[in-house]
Every structure is written in structure tokens, then in C-alpha cells.
Specification:
The protein has a single domain (about 5, about 30-115), classed as Electron Transport, Fmn-binding Protein, Chain A (Pnp Oxidase, Chain A), CATH 2.30.110. About 25% of the residues lie in helices and about 35% in strands. The protein contains 3 helices and 7 strands, in the order ββββαββααβ. The chain has helices at about 50-55, 80-95, 100-105; strands at about 10-15, 25-30, 30-35, 35-40, 60-65, 65-75, 110-115. A 7-stranded antiparallel β-sheet has the order 2-1-5-6-7-4-3, with helices on both faces. The longest helix is centred in the last third of the chain and has 15 residues, at about 80-95. The radius of gyration is 13 Å and the shape is globular. The protein starts with 11 loop residues before the first strand and ends with a strand. This is Nitroreductase family deazaflavin-dependent oxidoreductase. InterPro entries: F420H2_quin_Rdtase, Split_barrel_FMN-bd.
Length: about 120
Amino acid sequence: MALDALGDEPFCYLTTIGRRTGSRRTIEIWFAIRTPTVYLLSGDGAGAHWVRNLLSEPEVEVRIGAASFAGRARVLEGGAEEAAARQLLLEKYQPTYAGDLTGWSRTSLPVAVDLRIP
């Protein structure tokens, strides 16, 4: 299945390695895709445990639907890719969300996961 075909899934599962325990930690999170990259936003910024984990160990796993992918995570710091990531997430979730996501899309920490697609 092509990665882009998974873009309509409502969320993905991100698995990081705990920076203290070394254990696998999985969260459910909103996402957007621009192949071969998955974009995420952390409303808690760099303080979110999942972000702290991937900063310590950037090798992660992303599951979308029944498909799982290994990838390397990185925080986006300005530029066209960051702007595109924010816009992709806003466009995906705003139409079906009751509140206004503009502030969330502007202030959350953007994270990219570059997937290794077989």
C-alpha cells in the first residue's frame, strides 16, 4: 500500500525509546504525510515526553492503520518544511474539529519523521 493512501487515517501510533528506561513508549497522535515523511505537532513543545525521547534516540517506529514503518525523527526549526508541516496538519484536522486549531498549528513544536519505506 502506498504511504499517501494512509493519509486519511485519523491518527498514527508513534513508538519512541524511553530516554531513561530504554523501554518502548507508544502514543496515539495526529499526523500528516508528505511522502516519505510523517509530520507531527507537539502541543507541549519540547517538554513532551515523546519529544524528549526522540531527541535522545531519534530512531522511532510509526504505525498507520495496519502498516508499520521505521524512521528517524527530527525537530523542524524554521523554513519551508516547517511551514508546510503546520499547514498540512491544519488542513487535515480543522474541517472535522469543533474548535479553532489555528493557534495549535502555529505554536506547537513541529516534528518530522523520515520513514524508511521498503
